[in-house]
From TrEMBL:
Residue intervals of the HTH iclR-type domain: 15-75
Superkingdom as given in the UniProt entry: Bacteria
Species for this entry: Lentzea indica
Name of this protein: Helix-turn-helix domain-containing protein
Pfam families per record: HTH_IclR (PF09339), IclR_C (PF01614)
Keyword field: DNA-binding, Transcription, Transcription regulation
């Protein structure tokens, strides 16, 4: 996503074209719908001809695709995301990231997977809050009795007209979640 106060017409980069191409892909990801050349040009503060050239180059690499109504992300983005996930230790990444979050670092955060109807805790970041959780790493809990489990169940709704098998495991992308717990005296009760 491009900062609205920043123009991509003049970019301080060793490779301005690459910087602009990445900004275009980020804008398509942010929009979550097909976007036309004119709208992309306005959002990126670039000439339509430059955006058209970027789109053609990105289409050639399958990073974006031409669809009715404009341009959308291409399958190559999914391939790259999957390659990142395959080469990333999820628990280690959680631990590293949890300590660097300006708002989250002082809070207690959990990483878990939804396995059937249960939550399995993979990692915990203990912030500086006085309330500690009874969520040991490796512990299984019914998803419906934990805030994290409820959040994961709510975000794992099936498409309309299809029943979800509650005993089926969710995918690695769907089932990973860190949730910031609420503050206050009722936090332990939730």
């Amino acid at each position: 996503m491009v900062d609205s106060a920043r123009s991509l017409r003049s970019v301080d980069s060793r490779s301005p074209a690459v910087t602009r191409a990445v900004a275009l892909v980020e804008e398509l990801a942010r929009q979550r719908r097909p976007v036309g050349i004119a709208e992309l040009a306005r959002a990126l503060d670039l000439a339509k001809s430059s955006v058209a050239n970027l789109c053609a180059a990105l289409e050639g690499t399958h990073m974006i695709r031409r669809v009715e109504g404009g341009w959308a992300l291409g399958y190559k983005v999914v391939e790259l995301g999957q390659a990142f996930l395959a080469g990333t230790d999820l628990v280690e990444e959680f631990r590293r990231t949890a300590t660097t979050l300006p708002v989250g670092a002082p809070e207690t955060m959990l990483l878990a997977v939804l396995e059937g109807t249960e939550v399995v805790y993979l990692a915990r970041h203990d912030g500086c809050q006085p309330v500690r959780l009874a969520s040991d790493i490796g512990r299984r809990m019914p998803a419906v009795v934990t805030a994290l489990g409820k959040a994961m169940l709510a975000s794992n709704q099936p498409p309309k007209g299809r029943m979800r098998n509650p005993t089926a495991n969710t995918t690695a992308v769907d089932r990973s979640c860190a949730v910031r717990l609420p503050r206050g005296k009722n936090a332990a009760a939730k």
